[in-house]
Amino acid sequence: MSRWDFVGRTDELNRLLSAVGGPEGRGLLFSGTAGVGKSRLLREGVAALPTDGYAIWTVAASATTAALPFGGLVQVLPADQPQGLSPAGILRWAVEVLQEQAAGRPIVLAIDDAHLLDPPSAALVHLLSHSENATVIGTLRDGEQIPLPIRALWTDDMVDLVELGPLGAAETTGLLAAILDGPVDSGSAERLFRLSAGNPLLLRELVLAATAGGELTRTYGIWKWTGRLELAPSLTELIGTRIGQLTPGVRAVVELVAFGEPLGLHLLEQAVDPADVETAEERGLIRMLRNDRRLNVRLAHPLYGEVMRRQCPVSRTRRLQATLAELLEQVGKRRRDDLLRVAVWRLDSGTAQDPALLLEAAAQAFGRYDVPLATRLARAALEADGGFDAAELLATILMFGDQPDEAIRVLDSVAREIHSDGRRSRWLTVRGMVSYWGLSRESTVEEIAARAGELADLTARARVRAFEAIMRLHRLDTRAALRLAQAVLDRPASSVASRELARCTIAHLRAGQGQYRRSATAVARVQAEAARWRGEMPYLQLAMELARGTRLALSGDLPGIDAIVADEFADLAGAGEFRLGTGYLAILQAYAARLRGQSDEALRTSLGACAVLATSRVYAGLAHAERAQAAALRGETGHAVEAMAEADRTHAPGMAVLYPWLEQARGAVYAAAGDLPGATKHLCALAERVRADGLAGHEVLVLLDLVRLDQAAAPVGPTCTDGGRRTVAQRLADLSERVDGALPPLVARYARAAVEDSPTELLAVADALAARDLTVFAAEAAALALRRLRRSAATGPARERLAALLSRCDQVSTPALRLLRPALSDRERQVARLAADGATSRAIAEQLYLSSRTVENHLQRVYSKLGVAGRAELRAALRSMPGHDGADSA
User: Fold this and answer.
1) I want to staple 253 with a disulfide (CB 3.0 to 4.6 A). Which of 109, 280, 414, 660 is the partner?
2) At what angle do helices 458-474 and 444-452 cross, to 10 degrees?
3) What is the DSSP letter of 725?
4) ∠ at Cα 487 (485, 492), nearest 5°?
5) What is the distance between the terminal CA atoms of the chain, rounded to a whole angstrom?
6) Region of 514 on the Ramachandran plot (φ > 0 left; ψ -120 to 50 alpha; else beta)
7) What superfamily in CATH does domain 10-163 come from?
8) Strand duo 294-299 + 263-264: pairing
């Protein structure tokens, strides 16, 4: 494990540096809780100051030196002090010594833990702060007694006092990635952030404990925490020190909140003395939060609960949990959450005897996509003689928990309890779902189709037909899928859940066919009925997201993808380990990042999807295909080839509906490897295949890939009456009239401009693509325009456009962009070396200014190495050079 990097705190660091070098010259003190990062921030700020420009003294006050006169400044003042001076005289002498040592340079006095300064040192700091050439910066700990001279620094308006809060979620994730030398699974990062509450010291202890216990594992480069936490002695001691000694009454308050949070204040005060509640709040052990009309009590820090629960004896733990259940049952389960909470307390306390309670709670947990909790409750319901209903629910949950073999065993154990068509249809559909998607048995479709005919009850038969329809869609038997789904919708006896599952099948198919408006309308209908189907079939959400995601991806609607990735379902699925949901949404997020040219995010997010889906084959192939696309975009051929091989290995035959995505990725891998003829041949064959399957939406994207390879004139598509074949551009013109949305006409326009060699039109297309945030496609269109203009002197606008687009991208290397990079001249090699060596933007700009081919040969290399801030500096430096063309400077 490497040293902890300094992550985030950019605004705070800039403010600290401004306090030293700003025109006002005011000092700055950061206050905050222990471990929040005050000392590290101060060290980073001091390290950033030029030692030749300032006289810098750094002081670390401590409890050891607090009892000694001038003990806090012992590192700064001479060892021998003059004798016989009054206290005021010694202070004046100390100021003069520091001014003499500064030798005319501005003084910076940095004091860590200034609240621990002894009185004379504190007085000297206050006196020095009044000097015109001195600035005081430092840190204070919240809740400590502050020496009056230090307090006077901000009350006398000599320094600013700033409260340093905890790290945010994004900063915590960045810190974790830095220390572990790799990205962290979003769910793991969220849990570690919640437990540490953004405190870097606590986060460090958590990571050390998880690492020592082998609870941090790496899959496809992504770190994942199991969630199990063996508290290290250092962490337990640290939290124990914060909690301190507790009276029996206050301990009872903290323990009840630890096992019951969030706990209503009215419930808590029925079990303990209200005076003890007040004491716990005053000591900062608990906090009050308003939730609608209820005042809830939580622990002041999540780790307090971890420590209290670990230290509580088993017998008392069970008694406390039973007490909590009894309290809530006495006042009545008024909120939907209450039933789930009572069931968990009953289960954990060993007092759960009502299978109906456990079953209802399990369904509620599954409706929130909390797979681990739902599994526990459903298993307990089955063990408490919950019978068929408990077995059906448990098997369903096990399917989404990647445990299909156990799910089959559970279902078979209650096969003799099927005495009605209703039960038989539920048993058939759950078993079919587990067999088809969980165990990849394609024969399942025919099996449940045959069994459906045995059902006399029309509602039960409709349920089976709805599942058969979506299975046939995934197997790419689209005509049968559409016929079956439509029949379910037309049957009045169909349940709400059956109808909406059938509607999802149709919405997905319409999206693949390019009928985006009809697909969106169907999805909107499914969403409108969510309250009626979620209780019976919560996993229907996944079918809806697949249909919606397919439409958004095919139509190039990146804001739409952003919206569903940020929706409530994403949060619930991530928190509840509903991996199929989080995995698919991560694939969509990576797709959007890739089209925007954010290759770092695309690769990182697709790797995360691969890690999440490592134990499931439903979307695993799709995740690896997206990873291959991201690697190909970056020009990382070896990685792209490996990812494509993994996509082939993990792709389930029963997910044939996803083949266009995988085969598009294969074309990108061919192109990244430099095999442009192979890529062209593959994509032409793929265009024929998706056309034969009626997937016009996919066909547009495949043909777009051919245009990106400058193959708009390649023969593809149906044979014309004269025996010839239509070109890519002609086929796109046909599709632009059949496929919904703004993207198909724009892609057809792109192809036509490429065939007609129209740089002006290509640049206009680039602008239109950029307006839709399709930055990579836009950059390639601008690059194609620049290639067409090579024989002309009017390349400035194209270069400017390309520069602006590439400045929005990370590392991007596609065939269209690589074609703009001929062999380098000596001057150009010098520029590349400067960029590789981390030269200043000004130095690189000077070399670019001298070179005859600025953007065309250097832009991709230089921009990919500079980062966002460096790119901005480079452009500014170029523009500042006299006589330099504004177009070239871009």
Assistant:
1) 280
2) 160
3) E
4) 115
5) 42
6) left
7) P-loop containing nucleotide triphosphate hydrolases (3.40.50.300)
8) antiparallel
Examine the pLDDT at 685 and tell me if it is beyond 70: yes
Q: Where are the beta strands (DSSP E) in 322-418?
A: none
Q: What is the DSSP letter of 53?
A: T
| More confident of the two residues 151 and 132 | 151
User: Which pLDDT tens digit goes with each residue over 373-408?
Assistant: 999 999 999 999 999 999 999 999 999 999 999 999
Q: Do domains 10-163 and 555-673 have the same CATH topology?
A: no
* 186: CB partners within 8 A, 6+ apart: 173, 574, 582, 586, 608
Cα gap 208→202, rounded to integer Å = 10
- Residue 453 class from Cβ within 10 Å (0-12 exposed, 13-18 middle, 19+ buried)? exposed
Confidence tier at 718 by pLDDT (50, 70, 90)? confident
- Sequential DSSP letters for 768-834: HHHHTT-HHHHHHHHHHHHHHTTTSS--HHHHHHHHHHHTT-SS---HHHHTT--PPPHHHHHHHHH
Half-sphere exposure of 306 (CA within 13 A, CB side): 21
pLDDT digits (tens, 9 = 90+) for 151-210: 988 888 888 888 988 888 888 888 888 888 888 888 888 888 888 888 888 888 788 878
The sign of the torsion formed by the CA atoms of 418, 421, 423, 426 equals: positive
Q: What are phi and psi of 715, to 5 degrees?
A: -75, 130
- Rounded to the nearest 5°, which phi and psi values hold at 162? -125, 130
Contact 399, 426 (CB under 8 A): no
Q: Tokens 């520029």 map to which residue?
A: 831
Signed CA dihedral, 529, 534, 536, 541: sign only: positive
Question: Nearest CA to 538 among 378, 661, 325?
Answer: 378
Distance CA 118, CA 69 (A): 6
- The single-letter DSSP state of residue 881 is S
* Whole-number Å distance between alpha carbons of 121 and 95: 11
110, 464, 577 from 15: Cα distances, Å? 15, 64, 40
Among 534, 533, 472, smallest CA distance to 506 is for 472
Among the ranges 34-38, 229-233, 236-240, which has the highest mean pLDDT value?
34-38
CA gap 297, 286 in Å, rounded: 7
Is the CATH code 1.25.40 the one for domain 555-673?
yes
**Alpha-carbon distance 778 to 767, whole Å?**
7
Match 């390019």 to its residue by tokens.
514
Whole-number Å distance between alpha carbons of 365 and 400: 13
